[in-house]
């Protein structure tokens, strides 16, 4: 199962959010930090899994992400958590139009 994790600032445009998602190709699920799941779902018209990203170790580090969510990358953390135990990143975070996106692969479904 492929899961896209998305990190974004409040008010990010729907077009930027959709462009970031399209940039990673097909995914089975989309996840973000729980407090932002509703906003993301409304913006892109897709079911979003809101997950707890607090304390999740990530290979890349953003000071802003760590200050706001206690993880180095909301996108990477959300993808890893939603993909389940033993998940691995297959695409580290990248920034598309101000939206951060990463992809993890796991066995949960």
What this model shows, in words?
With 109 residues, this protein is α/β, with parallel strands linked by helices. It has a single domain, classed as Nucleotidyltransferase, domain 5 (2-Layer Sandwich), CATH 3.30.420. Helix content is 32%, strand content 28%. The chain is built from four helices and five strands. It has a five-stranded mixed β-sheet, sandwiched between helices. The chain is globular, with a radius of gyration of 12 Å. The termini are close together. The mean pLDDT is 94. InterPro entries: CobE/GbiG_C, CobE/GbiG_C_sf.
Q: Describe the biggest sheet?
A: 5 strands, mixed
Question: How many E strands?
Answer: 5
Global outline: globular
SS content category: alpha/beta
Relative helix content: 25-40%
Instruction: Report the sheet-strand fraction.
Output: 25-35%
Instruction: List the uncertain runs.
Output: none
Q: On the 0-100 scale, what is the average pLDDT?
A: 94
What is the correct CATH architecture? 2-Layer Sandwich
CATH fold annotation = Nucleotidyltransferase, domain 5
| Subunit arrangement of the protein | single chain
Q: How far is it from the N-terminal to the C-terminal residue, by CA?
A: 6 Å
């Amino acid at each position: 199962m492929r899961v896209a994790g998305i990190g974004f600032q409040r008010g990010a445009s729907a077009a930027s959010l959709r462009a970031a998602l399209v940039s990673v190709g097909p995914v089975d699920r989309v996840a973000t930090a729980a407090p932002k799941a509703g906003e993301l779902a409304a913006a892109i018209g897709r079911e979003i899994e809101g997950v707890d990203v607090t304390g999740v170790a990530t290979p890349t580090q953003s000071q802003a992400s760590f200050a706001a969510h206690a993880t180095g990358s909301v996108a990477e953390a959300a993808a890893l958590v939603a993909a389940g135990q033993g998940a691995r990143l297959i695409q580290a975070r990248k920034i598309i139009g101000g939206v951060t996106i990463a992809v993890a692969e796991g066995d949960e479904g």
